[in-house]
Design a protein that fits this description.
By secondary structure, the protein is an alpha+beta fold. Helices cover 46% and strands 23% of the residues.
């Protein structure tokens, strides 16, 4: 089954992620002195809907969808140094992202259609086995 899902993802340009947009970001345990980095992320990612993947040193950390992408990425960036509203389930984002400091790569792919995003997200979860799934 895994091979079929990976083949589907490859045939539909979801894998490998080399054809996704990406940016590098540094998660740290203190707030940045200004909001310039968040502004830069917003300028790059804009307010599109889609899927995103966090990676560090070749290890997939997190897979999710965003509507819009920027809101989700901003929340994870902030959760690396403080708790954020909406972080339910025992502050799991804060616990996870604060324990993964340093240089991270974020891949994202614009994608409309909530149902399709949900299905592809689950397939990517299955194929990539992100660390966050083990963390929960």
């Amino acid at each position: 089954m895994k091979q079929k899902i990976e083949k589907f993802l490859e045939n539909n340009n979801f894998l490998p992620m080399t054809n996704w947009h990406s940016l590098e970001i540094i998660h740290r345990d203190t707030a940045p002195e200004d909001s310039q980095k968040l502004d830069q992320i917003e300028d790059i990612v804009l307010r599109k809907n889609g899927l995103y993947v966090y990676e560090k040193n070749g290890i997939i950390l997190y897979v999710d969808k965003g509507q819009p992408l920027f809101n989700r990425i901003r929340n994870h960036y902030i959760s690396s140094y403080q708790e954020v509203s909406g972080d339910t389930n025992n502050k799991r984002w804060h616990r996870f992202f604060s324990s993964h400091q340093g240089k991270l790569r974020i891949y994202w792919k614009e994608m409309e259609g909530e149902e399709t995003r949900q299905v592809i997200e689950k397939m990517l979860d299955y194929a990539l086995k992100p660390q966050f799934n083990l963390f929960q």
